[in-house]
Amino acid sequence: MLLVNNNLVVQSESRKQILKTNSKTIIILIISIVMISALLFRNFFFKSTYLLKSFGELSVAPEIAFTNNKPTFLEFYAEWCEVCKEMAPKVSAFKDEYEKDINFVFLNVDNKKWGNYIQQFAVNGIPQINLFDKNGNLISTFIGKQDEIKIRESIDNLEKEEKTYEEIINSEFSTIQENEHNEVSPRSHG
């Protein structure tokens, strides 16, 4: 009887060791998969944030944009704004497609040096895109998440002679807020 009990104890200890080893292997495998996925898909997850950060660097100065006889695409955004991040790839595609014919100006609402533009264009929700004709007349205002086709139509209509102002507001937008943690350096254009 003692021999049987000892065999059971040995078998039980052996099973615990195997389970412990298997558990460690599974945990290591899961951690490895997560890390490899993060490395492979980092551009996908962080692309929008990177695009928003680069907008300010790629922007035409507003003073130049409104005086060089080209239509202007003006976007107010913030790096913390989820809707801005979601729209960033579309806006970047517009810039790539139209930048030879249109000024692209990107103003980060967290940068205090853009306060006069924020007031002038009554920005209270972001992203806000304002489209101006070559004479600096405001033609369209888009607030919040927008359909790419509607923005494209408005951009294409900037060259037409007859224009009427339109404002398109979507309920998916971020309210401008005092954001002390994400202050932007005054040297930064964005």
How would you sum up this structure, described in words?
- With 190 residues, the chain is α/β, with parallel strands linked by helices.
- The chain has a domain at 53-182: Glutaredoxin.
- It is 49% helix and 16% strand.
- The protein contains five helices and seven strands.
- Strands 2-1-4-5-6 form a five-stranded mixed beta sheet. A two-stranded antiparallel sheet has the order 3-7.
- Helix 1 (2-58) crosses helix 3.
- Residues 179-190 have low confidence and may be disordered.
Could you list the spans in which at least 5 consecutive residues all have pLDDT below 50?
Answer: 179-190
Order of helices and strands: HHEHEHEEEHEE
Query: Mind summarizing the main beta sheet?
Result: 5 strands, mixed
CATH topology of one domain: Glutaredoxin
Whole-angstrom Rg = 27 Å
Q: Within the largest sheet, what's the order of strands?
A: 2-1-4-5-6
Number of helices: 5
Summarize model confidence as the mean pLDDT: 78
Q: How far apart are the termini? A: 81 Å
Q: What proportion strand?
A: 15-25%
Secondary structure: elements and pairs:
Elements lengths: L1 H57 L3 H4 L6 E6 L4 H17 L4 E6 L6 H6 L4 E2 L1 E5 L5 E6 L4 H9 L9 E4 L4 E2 L15
Parallel strand pairs: 1-2, 5-6
Antiparallel strand pairs: 1-4, 3-7, 4-5
Give a quick set of tags describing it.
five-stranded mixed sheet; 16% strand; 49% helix; two-stranded antiparallel ribbon; Glutaredoxin; elongated; alpha/beta; 190 residues
